[in-house]
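Q: A reviewer asked whether we had any structural model of the full assembly, not just the individual parts. We don't, so I'm hoping you can provide one. Inputs are below.
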Amino acid sequence: MTDRPLVRLERDGAVARIVLARADAGNAVSLAFCQAFHEAVETCAADRSIRAVLVRAEGPSFCVGGDLAEFEAKGEQRPAHLAALAPVFHAAQARLMTLSAPVVVAVNGAVAGAGLGLALCGDIVVAAQSARFTLAYTAIGLSPDGGSTHLLPRLIGLRRTQELMLTNRRVDAAEALALGMVTEVVADRDLETHAQALARRLADGPTQAYAVVKRLLSLTFDRDFRTQTDDEGEQIARLSGGADAAEGIQAFFARRPPVFNG
Amino acid sequence: MTDRPLVRLERDGAVARIVLARADAGNAVSLAFCQAFHEAVETCAADRSIRAVLVRAEGPSFCVGGDLAEFEAKGEQRPAHLAALAPVFHAAQARLMTLSAPVVVAVNGAVAGAGLGLALCGDIVVAAQSARFTLAYTAIGLSPDGGSTHLLPRLIGLRRTQELMLTNRRVDAAEALALGMVTEVVADRDLETHAQALARRLADGPTQAYAVVKRLLSLTFDRDFRTQTDDEGEQIARLSGGADAAEGIQAFFARRPPVFNG
Amino acid sequence: MTDRPLVRLERDGAVARIVLARADAGNAVSLAFCQAFHEAVETCAADRSIRAVLVRAEGPSFCVGGDLAEFEAKGEQRPAHLAALAPVFHAAQARLMTLSAPVVVAVNGAVAGAGLGLALCGDIVVAAQSARFTLAYTAIGLSPDGGSTHLLPRLIGLRRTQELMLTNRRVDAAEALALGMVTEVVADRDLETHAQALARRLADGPTQAYAVVKRLLSLTFDRDFRTQTDDEGEQIARLSGGADAAEGIQAFFARRPPVFNG
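A: Here is a predicted structure for the entire assembly that you could use as a starting point for your response.
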């Protein structure tokens, strides 16, 4: 273990930044990295003052996926190693997706394997023009994890998902945008400031309403129209009695920007 | 209450037209508007002679969404107001989607909030070039309703849905077409005649077969391949014994257009 | 019955080729064709030495859909005929989709009705530029089968599916690619060699990993994130102890192409 953490949690007002800080290894997902990431996410979940989360990476690549050096070193213990690692990574992702705060992920360079799964679970994914995406699992005889078999079909449809998982074709940022894998593409030099500004804007928004959006979208594919709209109706009625809705409606009529408290 | 109805139901042969007729308020969804819309849809559902439904709006905008003036006027009763309104709107939408007759929606100008949900529940959505779409809910501190959290992910994928619900970015007609939000885009001046002609063509079609298409698609996301194909098989076998199939097959061999009775 | 089979099963090393061989009738899906196709698929399922399957067609069209001449000849027995035929076709499709071997489908010319359903159930679908796709069912008063109401919404979204099923608009190869209906488009003269090379490449790949990809994707729309990622974790841990993963990781570090045994 080093003193330098593999994943840093930083604060900037109401915005929390989860920084993948293992640049020397392409932010490869070792067990220790996984645990550090999980801890950062759990800390965000426990802190009600956090109103938006930004996930970004240090170094030329967002995340190259699993730590193959660690896989190699484990030898015959590899199945036990992965059986320990995968649930931690998936629990961190599930927690990230069910945070009430919106999550912006800023990706650059290589986004591969578990790194792709991590990117996909953001609510807003900003890609640098340099970003390139690949599943990579079957290229080394493994099957996908990181929720990619759950998320990708819902983002880009089943056909592209099949192709990318069977052929490991690399997708560039422009195609990732066209497919609906990422939300927007910006110049590399603008990635951090753009993503940070976006996170700050969301942190200034009606975060209770954002939390409802996130929850409803996380449930939608498991529900029929009736169940989903019943929930929609209960939530909008509840929120309509809150301070943010009162402010939003007043600001609308006053033709001024609203000031939300979340 | 005025003598002028907020929603008109008109007939043109086998085509029913549901006309949003509150142009002075951008067809904003007040409780009374909701009830009038629901009544129009229920009337269509009860009338077996209706073989296609066209939903269109009077005025420069299809529907700006919830009636914010009414929201404002309700003050502390707003949650109770919305708890009364939302189920009526959702019931009307559910009925519209489960009509055996196909539903064409013609949209123009602003299509926002609940207006977007209403547009999305058509089987065919024709947009005028002027149409512009926005979720708008979180802009005033509310969460989406009108089935948008159910329909949008199934139409345009999860990534765009997240973006549009969190940022309220406005989508123009061309982008709405590219995303799969609408079926086609026509010039503003052609909207009414085009949509009307389409509804008439569908009314002249094999409406029992259309009803099966609608039902199978409404159930598809809640079913596995086996269950869905079992149902497909039963339905095609049943329809194959009907008059429209007999006519369709005869017309195919005679190389003439079929004449369906539905 | 003729001596010439309606569907041929050929072998080329570890690649099985299912050849639709009813070119004189546009590979129309008669009951006998259905049974021959089902038998070919079951033979593939029973043969563990098959590591990839290629489905292709003889003649100018991949498959024009149901055999309307047979429908016509059946007269009043048509419902019973279809009630016998549809389950065989759907069982063959379900088996094809759950083969552990990846399935490449090569399509050309007319791809209509049940032929479209057959094409869609491939893992990789290669289209010749000449390919044109149409649902065709409601054009003759029938409702869709062949799993199209299950597959299309998951491939191209609900809006396009509704349009194509209600209007029978013909889609060309370029649009089919853009929509995510097919994986790639090649020149007509390259279709067979390209699809064959792709099948051979997949047969040389980590076929156990491919089988996991197929299974996870076939289940994804019926599962929540937690259930799906639990399964992902178990599968990647299991595969990581196998020979293909060991080879894949070694080859990665040796910067050489891996040699998989499946």
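A: Points you may want to mention in the reply: Residues 207-254 of chain A form a domain with the Lyase 2-enoyl-coa Hydratase; Chain  A, domain 2 fold (CATH 1.10.12). DSSP finds eleven helices and nine strands in chain A.
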